[in-house]
Specification:
The chain is an alpha+beta fold. The chain is about 20% helix and about 30% strand.
């Protein structure tokens, strides 16, 4: 029998050692400028004795900054004596993309959150995905992957889980989602147009570990409001897992509104290329058939704009940010109120 494939990435931290460690994962990558060099992916491990493990990721998409700032702040706040168990933090998961401030890696033009389960012998991004799924997620009792809308989208800050057909898993997911304490939380049916198996969520499912995600805002920036939600949620998940004591819980200012995002009719896409004029705003409740957007054509200003309508009623959870748009771009997506499982 051949030996199973093993990661080519090495870690400069000892996951079993007590204390605070901050160092790098070494992803060896030979280039013209650096023949024997490696990509240094920062990692932090905080451990104090036996107990549960929480894994926090951000920078899965490099232009999503709210989670990166929240985890940088968490690293500076955490201390071994505050916890029981272990916290693993990967604040710039797709390090080349995070360094470039891009959704995808400038090395292989790959989207980390569409690259799972990855490959130990693949491109840089595939190797990172393989390492996260096979070396980090299996060590964890809970994973939190902090996302936002990045450069092209803006969300109402929200937490999310992917629906599971397994009642026991769904109960764990719901408990973690409610513990996060976001003002809105939604249950996703899957990754739109891709399939959950190629995301970090798919990796967590394959390893049997519950995962909470977020969409914390976007527009390629960080807002104080979104950052506060992220930092409160991360702290509360540590309490939920038993790594922090109950006294460290931060009570959210309002109950979580539970939503769901379903199929294709929740999404509005550009039908033409041009300049996007939104006719609804984030947080608005819209009706089926209500005008959603007009797309204008400045190169032929006498041409009538293309008009788009919402296919269903719902809450405007997400909106495209850049005005210039191309056919096939997502302009809006909606959410609807959900009953608790």
């Amino acid at each position: 029998m051949p030996e199973p494939h093993r990661t080519r990435i090495s870690a400069d931290v000892d996951f079993e050692k007590d204390g605070m460690q901050h160092d790098f994962l070494r992803l060896f990558h030979s280039t013209h400028a650096s023949a024997y060099g490696f990509i240094p992916i920062p990692i932090v491990v905080v451990k104090n004795g036996a107990g549960p493990t929480a894994l926090f990721l951000s920078g899965n998409h490099g232009d999503e900054y709210e989670g990166q700032v929240a985890l940088c702040n968490l690293v500076k706040w955490l201390a071994p004596q505050k916890i029981k168990g272990r916290v693993i933090i990967l604040p710039a998961a797709n390090f080349p993309a995070a360094l470039a401030g891009r959704r995808v890696s400038p090395i292989d033009d790959a989207n980390l959150n569409r690259s799972f389960p990855g490959s130990p012998d693949g491109t840089v991004t595939q190797q990172i995905a393989f390492y996260i799924e096979n070396e980090l997620i299996p060590r964890a009792d809970l994973v939190c992957d902090l996302h936002s809308g990045g450069s092209s989208l803006m969300y109402l800050p929200s937490a999310l889980i992917k629906r599971s057909a397994d009642p026991a898993r769904m109960a764990k997911l719901m408990a973690a989602l409610e513990a996060f304490g976001a003002p809105r939380a939604y249950i996703a049916e899957g990754t739109q147009g891709q399939g959950g198996d190629v995301t970090a969520t798919g990796g967590a499912e394959r390893k049997g570990v519950p995962m909470v995600g977020t969409e914390l805002g976007g527009s390629g920036t960080v807002t104080p409001a979104a950052l506060a939600i992220a930092e409160r949620g991360v702290r509360n998940l540590l309490v939920h897992t038993g790594i922090l004591p109950a006294s460290e819980r931060i009570a959210p200012p309002e109950p979580t509104r539970l939503l769901e995002v379903g199929g294709a009719d929740y999404f509005t896409y550009a039908s033409e290329s041009g300049v996007f004029e939104p006719l609804a705003v984030l947080g608005e409740t819209v009706a089926a058939g209500q005008p959603a957007a007009r797309i204008h054509f400045p190169e032929t200003p006498w041409a009538p704009p293309a008009e788009l309508r919402f296919q269903r009623a719902g809450l405007v959870l997400c909106q495209r940010i850049p005005g210039r748009t191309a056919r096939g771009d997502c302009l809006f997506h909606l959410a609807t109120d959900a009953r608790r499982p």
